[in-house]
Amino acid sequence: MQSLSWQEQLAQAIRKPADLLEFAGLEADSIGYSQQAIRQFPVRVPFAFANRIKKNDPNDPILRQVFPYKAEEDEATGFINDPLAELNVQPVHGLLQKYNSRVLSITTGACAVHCRYCFRRHYPYQESSSSSKHWQASLDHIKDDSSIEEVILSGGDPLTLSDRRLQEICASIANIKHIKRIRFHTRLPIVLPARVTTTLLKQITDNDKSIIFVIHSNHANELDNSVSTIIKRLQEFDILVLNQSVLLKNINDSVTALINLSERLIENNVIPYYLHLLDPVAGAAHYDVSLDDAQSLMEEMQARVSGYLVPKLVKEEVGASSKTLIMN
Question: How many Å separate Cα 47 from the centre of its chain?
Answer without folding.
Answer: 18
